[in-house]
Amino acid sequence: MDRPRILVAEDDVSLAALMALDLKRRGYEVVSAKNGREAAAKVSSQHYDAVVTDLRIGVPDGLEILRIAKQSQPETQVILITGHGSIDTAVAAMKDGAYDYMTKPVEPDELAIVLDKAIEHRRLLGEVRRLREVVKGKYSFDNIVYVSTQMANVLDLVQKVAVTDATVLVCGESGTGKELVARAIHEKSSRRNGAFVAINCGALPEGLLESELFGHVKGSFTGAERNKRGLFEEASGGTLFLDEISETTPALQVKLLRALQDGEVRRVGDNHPIKVSGRLVAATNKDLAKMVEEGKFRDDLYYRLKVFPITIPPLRERPEDILPLAEHFLRNARKKNGGRAQRFSLKAAEALKAYRWPGNVRELEHAMERALIMSSEAAVACEDLPPEILSPGPRPPAGHAGERLRDLEKRHIVETLRAAGFSLPDAAKKLGLTRPALAAKMKAHRIPARPL
Ligand SMILES: Nc1ncnc2c1ncn2[C@@H]1O[C@H](COP(=O)(O)OP(=O)(O)OP(=O)(O)O)[C@@H](O)[C@H]1O
Ligand SMILES: [Mg+2]
User: Fold this and answer.
1) CATH top-level class for 405-445?
2) What is the number of the ligand 1 atom nearest to the C-alpha of 143?
3) Which atom number of ligand 1 is nearest to the Cα of residue 364?
4) Where residue 338 falls among pLDDT bands split at 50, 70, 90?
5) What is the pLDDT of residue 51?
6) Which of 168, 213, 375, 398 could form a disulfide with 341 if both were Cys (CB 3.0 to 4.6 A apart)?
7) Ligand 1, from 147, 316, 330, 362: best to mutate by most atoms within 8 Å of Cβ?
8) Do domains 5-136 and 149-311 have the same CATH topology?
């Protein structure tokens, strides 16, 4: 360690000079302050390992200097020197976080012993803080907000799989945080310094997707004007995130499987294998097992992917996460765009909790951005929330006594639609109706095809 840096605040000039001389001789770096004002200015602007201050040093006094020091540099240790008769104040100072106090006249040897201990204490505090930061960096997921045990379990899995090379399949409805989890796996892995490369398999036609993933050589197809590295190569040493893996064609699935098994790829138009070493994380909001059954997804790739599955539950199954997330998004939106609202009215909070969130966390994020724009008060009110959150209003408690069959049916359809993210085919399937039959019922009930 460097020479410890000490601030000596003492208004008795000759005593101060003696102390400084003695401490310097003992190997300390000493800075002096001859009154309270000077001491306060120095502790608040510069770093010291310890401060030795006379209790009565004018305004601000020693106690105030202690407070300033603790505020600007909490790990700095403060030793108070008191005249006789001010023991009570000294005791109060200890309560305020002083390391120790000494009564005048101060023996140089004694002061040196106390200072050495104080500086060792400070060093240990710093070490504890650094260790905490290390542990925190390892085990906390800074931008992932949750209080539910379901999400705690998900993050447990993330932690466990991150340190392995295993392929991961992240499942969950749209907007539940699949990409966030994929990124967390990357960040917690030894590959964190490599690239995180994401591609949405549903966004490109087969041919393009193939050349994106595996690369191509010049002239392999019209438009291929030069050699191109594929994303598998880009992600070598990092993580390749294949979003919406269910949208790949069987032909491409075969190629993916081969790349996974052999750890090598071939560029389109080239037979020369290239070694790749990235970890693959795939995501889907579809039921892949069912797609396999129906022959829509290759079983060999499916089994290869689901070695380590992580399923993120929909937001409605972890309602305790809704308000913490809502506050998080409100705060983020405020930082980005400004605005007033910092919290929710009681009714708005109730509505947020009661809503089913078919679009999950993403829908909540957008709702909060909108609420901040709509709200002009310190608290977001019901009127500031998107209308679909409020109608048909917070669900009544269980039991529908007195509700007419017709209303019951309407409500059931609306809720199923919401749960299906307003996908008519999905909702029809869940309701056991054909699509035209569902459409007819929606028309009869005047249910809009899309949320407002
Ligand atoms: N637990 C969480 N804490 C904080 N932000 C979250 C959380 N879960 C999701 N988000 C945020 O919600 C948004 C949607 O998450 P993400 O894109 O990861 O979902 P997804 O499952 O990939 O959605 P999609 O299926 O629509 O692609 C992102 O802005 C993400 O940062
Ligand atoms: Mg996504």
Assistant:
1) mainly alpha
2) 4
3) 12
4) confident
5) 96
6) 375
7) 362
8) yes
